[in-house]
Amino acid sequence: MAFKKLQVLEEKGYVQLKPFDGELDPAEWESLEYVDWKSGGDTNFAILASANGEHDARGFWEYGKPDKGGVWVNDNIEKSPTFKKWTESAGADFGRVRVIKLNTSADYDEAVRNMHKDDNNRLTEDGTGWVVRAWLQLTDDPDSYMILRENKDDVDSEQHIHLNKGAVFLVDSERLDHAVYHPGKDPRYAVIASFESGPELESWVADNLP
Ligand SMILES: [Fe+2]
Predict the structure, then answer these.
(1) Residues 6+ apart with CB under 8 A from 7
(2) Centre of ligand 1 from the C-alpha of residue 2, in Å
(3) Ligand 1 center to 179 CA (angstroms)
(4) What torsion do the CA atoms of 147, 93, 202, 14 make, to the nearest 10 degrees?
(5) How far is ligand 1, taken at its centre, from the CA of residue 121, in Å?
(6) Averaged pLDDT for residues 180-184
(7) How far does the centroid of ligand 1 lie from the alpha carbon of residue 41, in Å?
(8) Which pLDDT tens digit goes with each residue over 147-173?
(9) Could you tell me the distance, in angstroms and rounded to a whole number, from the CA of residue 173 to the centre of ligand 1?
């Protein structure tokens, strides 16, 4: 048996989708409750969906679950209906959903040092959908970008995704090393959702190709 994966991610491990078509109101991310959780730089996270509906940034494996079947964190998701709607619009099973707040990177080299692969599939069962992640960029940071490499030391494979407001992209973030280089002086915010690969996610991608 093998995991179900998306054809569209096979070649490069990521796909850029159409920008978000709608209003992104800073009140939806600025009013959330954030937890101190470091991942890929100086970060905080607002937990929108977790394994148990609590403000818990830890992996679903702590609860014996694959990164699927996310439970909305009520007091945060009440304040961010657009993010709930966006996540549900994919039609796929979702796990972790959060807003990342990333403070300024010192420089590009620091971002490279922060590159990592996500642990998305520790408990994904054989034969079921491989978990990948989608990003929805909230702040307008066109000079900031996600750095992607097949492996951290494989410089030739480097790709950049620029972080204009509303940018949407899907990444097999357990396959690709990644980190964001953010030179802006204000924090950069984005929604990150874990999704199960399968026919639902495949048709969401097909409907949202640029
Ligand atoms: Fe990551």
Answers:
(1) 202
(2) 23
(3) 7
(4) 10
(5) 13
(6) 96
(7) 10
(8) 999 999 999 999 999 999 999 999 999
(9) 6
Query: For residue 39, is pLDDT > 90?
Result: no
pLDDT digits (tens, 9 = 90+) for 77-98: 999 999 999 999 999 999 999 9
Residue 116 C-alpha to ligand 1 middle, in angstroms? 6
**Integer Rg of the chain from CA:** 16
Between the CA of 192 and the centroid of ligand 1 the distance, in Å, is: 9
Calpha distance 145→22 (Å, rounded): 22
- On the question of pLDDT at 40 being above 90, the answer is no
Residue 26 Cα to ligand 1 middle (Å) = 23
166 C-alpha to ligand 1 centroid (Å): 19
Query: To which residue do tokens 């357990």 refer?
Result: 174
Residue 1 pLDDT more than 90?
Answer: no
**Band of residue 121 on the pLDDT scale cut at 50, 70, 90:** very high
pLDDT band at 45 (very low <50, low <70, confident <90, very high): very high
Please give the domain boundaries of the chain with CATH numbers for all domains.
Answer: 7-207 (2.60.120.330)
What separation in Å is there between the alpha carbon of 46 and the centre of ligand 1? 15
CA–centroid distance, residue 177 to ligand 1 (Å): 8
Tokens of 49: 């969906």
